[in-house]
Amino acid sequence: MTVICWFRRVLRLDDHPALVAAAKDGDVIPLVILDPAEARDHPASAQRQAMSLPRLEASLRQRHSRLIVRRGDPAQVLEQIARETGASAVHTTVGFPFASDHGLQAAVERSGASLHLHELADLVPRASVLTKTGGVYKVFTPFWKAVRQTDIAPPLPTPTISSPDSWPDSDGTDWPEARAAMDRGWDVMADHIRPGEDEAMTRLDEFLDGTLPDYKEHRDQPWRPRATSNLSDALAVGEISARRIWRHCQPAFQDGQKGIDHFLSELCWRDFARELFHEAPDMASTPWRPEWQDFPWKRDNNDAQDWRRGHTGVQMVDAGMRELYVTGQMHNRVRMITGSYLTKHLLTDWRVGLDWFARCLIDWDAASNAMNWQWVAGCGPDASPFFRVFNPETQGDKFDGKARYRDHWLHPNAEGAKQFAAATPRSWQIDLTHKPTPAISLAEGRARALDAYETVKS
Ligand SMILES: Cc1cc2nc3c(=O)[nH]c(=O)nc-3n(C[C@H](O)[C@H](O)[C@H](O)COP(=O)(O)OP(=O)(O)OC[C@H]3O[C@@H](n4cnc5c(N)ncnc54)[C@H](O)[C@@H]3O)c2cc1C
Q1: 3-state helix/strand/coil string of 230-297
Q2: Which residues are CB-contacts of 438 (< 8 A; sequence separation ≥ 6)?
Q3: CA 442 to CA 389: how far, in whole Å?
Q4: How far apart are CA 262 and CA 339, in angstroms?
Q5: Topology of domain 1-121, CATH
Q6: What percent of the chain stands above pLDDT 70?
Q7: CB-ligand 1 contact for 366 (6 Å cutoff)
Q8: Would you say the CATH fold of 290-457 matches that of 1-121?
Q9: CATH number of the domain at 290-457, please?
Q10: Domain regions of the chain by residue span
Q11: Does residue 24 register a pLDDT over 90?
């Protein structure tokens, strides 16, 4: 029997529940679908995935298998390839966001095959860790305590993969729609990406053997290279599973090594976000707490445009937005600072920021992005209270005391600033030799935000 294993943002052979099931079921056709709509909405994430595909293909070839790549709408592609190959089943992991599963079942069944959706190999299966009353945890700390007491399932080993006698055609691993959507050019970001399943394990080892003991003290300092694991992009495209990380960390955890508990709790935020997103699939568009529905956020505006372009005149904000544009990443502390500045000082809707991050992040993850933006804006569960307005200057002094991070992205002779200048599209028409005047002073912006907050309180 021929079966299809659709590698859907799970670009690895290790701990792959759908691949294990497919390998048990018959001769496996490994499939990746390059969806033009995904490339349009999430170009940086699409580039990140595209760069991983040659690695996945090489791993499959080592096992005398292949990677079949098709471009198009997933439902149509699945129906077509299942018909073409006479496959009896399609195995894949559940969609993320979950709504993307709609329509797949019917399409696959039209070809005569059946669709099997498998778990994502997160720390815990969705809705398996619940409060005493059977609800989803809405506060992180008790969720983390409950996860810590749970037996996390061991990662699944890579199965033996048997191949069909003949292979269907493949479109190749290039993703033209993703290239076209990358307005700063593919090569700008490519230099900052280290793709592949093996590379993700190497990064994890480097972190555990290197900077882990200082994780808690150093993780908020954006100028420090490798102070954190830098695994979020590998997790987002599924080059490594959360369960594999957990398992790999167990010796350090059992030994009570410094930093490990804190690191694993951060990893658990990812599951927490997924839990909330499962409960509220509209979390990227609707405030978790309904009283925020009528908050007087401004929709997109010129100040938000400057924010996106790293041209607000507020150094910590501009440095972060430039880092994002060039590398597809932004340090977690700086995400909080730039997010706070947009939603509070500029009083702009958190969804404007969420959309930009969704376009630019190589670690874009629907749940983590939505939960964190609602956290920053104050409207999510367990969110930072709105009245805690981050002052970007004092945050800079505290976490980037010698301005190394800011200089790297803002000083005209620094490497980061040069990369940003080269990447900036002409259509932006920004003069990088001139320091812009902020739209509003930090004190006035804070006061305006707190006034607006009165509307929610009342
Ligand atoms: C406004 C905003 C938007 C964000 N959008 C995303 C996103 O789209 N995708 C994404 O993966 N992360 C997002 N984050 C969370 C966080 O910034 C990144 O996960 C982090 O920068 C990754 O760096 P690291 O891998 O070195 O993390 P480490 O500190 O080494 O942590 C290990 C892992 O834990 C997880 N993690 C850590 N912090 C968080 C968090 N706050 N929320 C969820 N998971 C977390 C990540 O998977 C990370 O790789 C966002 C944060 C903010 C404030």
Answers
A1: CCHHHHHCCCCCHHHHHHHHHHHHHCCCCCHHHHHHHHHHHHHHHHHHHHCCCCCCCCCCHHHCCCCC
A2: 312, 313, 314
A3: 10
A4: 23
A5: Rossmann fold (3.40.50)
A6: 100
A7: no
A8: no
A9: 1.10.579.10
A10: 1-121, 122-153+196-279, 290-457
A11: yes
User: Is the beta carbon of 266 within 6 A of some atom in ligand 1?
Assistant: yes
Interval 441-451 mean pLDDT: 97
CATH class of the domain comprising 122-153+196-279: mainly alpha
Give yes or no for residue 267 CB within 6 A of ligand 1.
yes
CA of 42 to the centre of ligand 1 (A): 17
pLDDT in tens, 176-208: 999 999 988 899 999 999 999 999 999 999 999
Residue 166 corresponds to which tokens in the numbers above?
Answer: 């003949």
∠ CA 288-441-324, nearest 5°, is: 55
Residue nearest ligand 1's atom 30 by CA:
229
Locus of tokens 């079921």: 25
Residue of 96, 85, 93 lying closest to 38 (CA atoms): 96
Counting ligand 1 atoms within 8 A of each CB, the residue from 260, 372, 390 with the most, and so the one to mutate, is 372
The model's pLDDT over 383-426, given as tens digits with 9 standing for 90+, comes to 888 999 999 999 999 999 999 999 999 999 999 999 999 999 98
Place of tokens 């493949």: 170
